[in-house]
Amino acid sequence: MKLNLNTRMRLLKRQFDRFLSRKISNRLIVSYMSLGVLPLVIVSLVLISLTQDTLQTYIYEKNRETALRASNEILLFIREPLTILQTATLTRDAIGMDAIEQINLVNRLKEGYPIFRKVFILNDSGQVNATTRFGEENLNFRDDPFFLDGIRGKEYFSDVYFTQSRFPLMSIAEPIERFGQIVGVIVAEIELRSIWALVDNIPVGDTGFVFLLSREGRVIAHKNKDKVFEKEDYSRFDFFSSLKTEKELTTAYQLGEDTHVLVYESVPELNWGVVVQQSHREAFALATQMQKRVLYLTALTILIAAIIGLLGVQRFTKPLLTLVKGVREYGEGNLQHKIEMQTRDELAELAQEFNSMAKSLHKNQIRLRRMERLAALSRFASLVSHEIRNPLNAMNINMQILKKTIHKPDVAPERKTKYLDIISSEITRMNELVTNFLIIARPPELNMIRINIHELLEEVLLLHEAQATEKNIRIERSLTTDNPCGMLDYNQLKQVLHNIIVNAFDAMPDGGKLSVRTTIIEPGKSNKNNRHFVKMEFHDSGEGIPEEILQEVFEFYYTTKRAGSGLGLAIAKQIVQGHQGDVYIESKIGEGTAVIIDLPIDQTTPALNEN
């Protein structure tokens, strides 16, 4: 009889398993049937809640008051140095933007208020006018957030950071106004150890404590300083998502084996949050004792519901977890992974479809890689042939000229030597072109020497004079009388000028005019930098470039020429920017194209009159 019963139980379990394994809906039915015990549970919960709500309201209000008081104290602590800075911005020392007076001002602030660790003043360009930190007098913070907010007339509060000795710091900033205009920003670095002491000394029962979170959910102040130094992230908890939309929040959450009551209060302006955490066991000890008697009455029902619910959830979630794990493998690039399912329901069919998809993607991935390699080889061959053709043509033209003039006694030897020098220079440039292909993705390494830009320009124009004559192109020069000289890379700038002139010639297949002009840009005019610049303009009389293409002409591999490589202007821009200059194009259809280069130079000196 016993054996027969065991057999029946096994058969029943097998049928039950088969029923559950066929469809997700079957498992949902079992789960929903288990909810039949909910009425009894609801009655029990109502009785429990009557007690819990009253105590919970009291505990939450008490902890919320603690959080609000801490929030106000923290805000007052932060507002104090900010108020000092605001007052300082109203003084004549700050508004006058006189460096000496501002140095005295920041030193008085640092000496008079120990909370300031460093104070400095920036002008409207982000340059340091005055600072209490030696060695920072010439720094520029125009891209730093405290300057960007301050110059827009906003107060600034940075995130908390730490010194090497693990002291907490933050930066604050206030704009300096003069006649309604922002003329500078005063910035201070303040110590936050007092906030640590404030947070650590707030009592919350026997097990509770207060800690402070940043706007991203990272710990700023905590009784466990390891959490502060490691910047423990609380944004992973479910409750933190509510902090972005609510000024205050009261909830409970699980941490390890213990449940904690949590009360959150925001710190205005700073977007910080004061969190009061207390053990649920301590907070609701009295309520727990009152609830035990009610719980004993419903314990058996809850236990049955928990067992049935657990079985249903496990059977429902296990294949889902397997499916999610498999999809995650695919997402990480492991397309050879195969999702194995023990069930035969819709999820198993979905897993099979995912396996088929991954297999197909793997085949396509192999095919795509093969095509990319072939395309890369083709592109590289095109690039090499295009870039080397130009110096070869130049060498051929100059050798033909040299061949015609080498035996003519009326041609000066220096002229013949010049053609040989040009040929040698082009050979060197071809070698550099090949090197550029190998380092195309890296910024150019500059070999700076002092160069007269006009001499370099004349040399490149002389190189192309024969080709210009052949193509019926007239070159007109309008060069400044000054001598623009600077520390530049001779060979790389020569390549830039060569590419621009070749492009101009290509834009005038039926002949035309290339105007070459240089001007000096002095500081304080249209030049925002405190340096002298030379502006070189190459204006051709071609058809011009459509506006929609202008945005892409400096991109690598972009070209409108059938035999072009798309590297000339891209490399030119890379080289010019490496010299801290700029290159841009102005063009109109039917009026031609102007390529403009701005390069930094030394202070210019007028050229001598050669009369």
Strand element count: 20
Briefly note the CATH topology name of the domain at 441-606.
Answer: Heat Shock Protein 90
> What's the CATH class of the domain at 441-606, please?
Alpha Beta
| Parts with pLDDT < 50 across at least 5 consecutive residues | none
Q: pLDDT average, as an integer?
A: 78
Which architecture name of the domain at 441-606 does CATH use? 2-Layer Sandwich
Which range best describes the helical content: under 10%, 10-25%, 25-40%, 40-55%, 55-70% or over 70%?
40-55%
Largest sheet: 6 strands, antiparallel
Task: Figure out the total of helices.
Answer: 16
What is the CATH superfamily label of the domain at 441-606? Histidine kinase-like ATPase, C-terminal domain
The N- and C-terminal alpha carbons lie at a distance of 131 Å
Beta-strand percent range: 15-25%
Notes on the protein architecture:
The protein has 611 residues and is α+β, with helices and mostly antiparallel strands. Among the domains are: 90-191, 2-Layer Sandwich (Beta-Lactamase); 441-606, Histidine kinase-like ATPase, C-terminal domain (Heat Shock Protein 90, 2-Layer Sandwich). The chain has helices at 2-22, 24-33, 38-89, 92-95, 99-112, 145-151, 193-200, 225-229, 280-283, 285-331, 346-405, 413-438, 453-470, 490-506, 547-550, 568-578, and strands at 116-123, 128-131, 156-157, 161-162, 168-178, 181-191, 209-213, 219-221, 248-255, 258-267, 272-279, 448-452, 473-478, 482-483, 485-489, 512-521, 532-540, 582-588, 592-601, 605-606. Strands 1, 2, 3, 4, 5 and 6 form a 6-stranded antiparallel sheet that branches. The chain has a 5-stranded antiparallel sheet with strand order 8-7-11-10-9. Strand 9 and strand 10 form a beta hairpin. Helix 3 (38-89) packs across helix 10 (285-331) and helix 11 (346-405) runs antiparallel to helix 12 (413-438). It is flat and about 125 Å long.
